[in-house]
Amino acid sequence: MRAWRRLRARDDETRRAIAAALGFEWQEGKLTPSAVSESAQPAPAPETLPAEESAVTKDAVESGVVPRTSGRAAPATTPVRSELTPLPPRSPDDTWLLRVEPLPQVAEDRPPPLPLEPLFQPGWARALLSGALATLGADGPLDLPQLIEWIAQGLPVQRLPMLQQPTLVLGVQLLLDRSDAMIPFHRDQSWLVRQLRQTVGKERVAVLHFSGSPRRGAGLGPRHDWEPYMPPGDGAPVLAVTDLGVGQPLAADTFVDESEWLLFADDLVRAGSPLVILTPYPPRRWPPALARRLLILHWERTTTISHVHSRVGKGRQTS
């Protein structure tokens, strides 16, 4: 046998082992088929495909869709039949599944918010805001010296002259900067709104939000609902709570330079409404051009009533 020569079988014991592995028996120099080999049944002949399927397979092989094989026909596949067995009806004992209550909500152990320390002294807030936003109205006491002068000159007295005095009767328009740089001051802004409503009156405080500059739009709610800014029509003062662009990165969409705030101040002058700026940044960081032309107050606990009166006087004049 070639297997003996290939494996270099030199003795009968080795030849007998090789023959047994190949299904033969080695007996005195002669090979005979073993019982296992004789009892083995020949493999059934492969089934051939029907003519139509054979043609489809041949075309697929020639087109390269199906790889070419040794030439044997592929065995036909027998479909497997499967059936779905319906579940048995639910027994009365299973009704508890419909009465299962959800698990109780587990309360999260969130730490309470830190107490707010307002940027204005709470005891001074009313006086600070009224002093900053008061306008001069001719509804004070009678101006007796002016009345005597008119009579002495023989002038007709068509109206009684009244002395001007500071008043909050016009209310205030409050503009809150909601840009990213002012996020740390949102709670302070909410506190300021409450204080202002207690000082001026809830119905006389109009609150608007803006980002960067009011000239880019203002309103309440989502920013896409904001509209072009409109100054108050009755000459009411405008209080803008903003960083004046000091805390904004130069590449930010909300960054504004000095010129845009100066244009906004000119718009209010034409509308007859005085402007007051309230900013949390110290004076050394204020843009010089704005510090010279605008009334800016430092929104900080060290700001005193006397400081506000020195900047505002008895009140702002309206047109």
CATH class group of the largest domain: Alpha Beta
Helix content: 25-40%
The CATH architecture of the largest domain can be given as: 3-Layer(aba) Sandwich
* Class inferred from helices and paired strands: alpha/beta
Give the oligomeric state of the chains in this entry, treating copies of one chain as homo and distinct chains as hetero. single chain
Strand line-up in the sheet with most strands? 6-5-7-8-9
Write down the Rg.
Answer: 49 Å
CATH topology of the largest domain: Rossmann fold
The number of distinct helices, counting runs of at least 4 residues, comes to: 10
Q: Describe the biggest sheet?
A: 5 strands, parallel
The number of domains is: 2
User: Uncertain runs with pLDDT below 50, 5 residues or more?
Assistant: 35-41, 52-57
Distance between the termini: 125 Å
Report the order of strands and helices: HHEEHHHEHEEHEEHEHEH
Q: Total strand count, please?
A: 9
Instruction: Summarize model confidence as the mean pLDDT.
Output: 80
Q: How big a fraction of the residues is strand?
A: 5-15%
- Shape designation: elongated
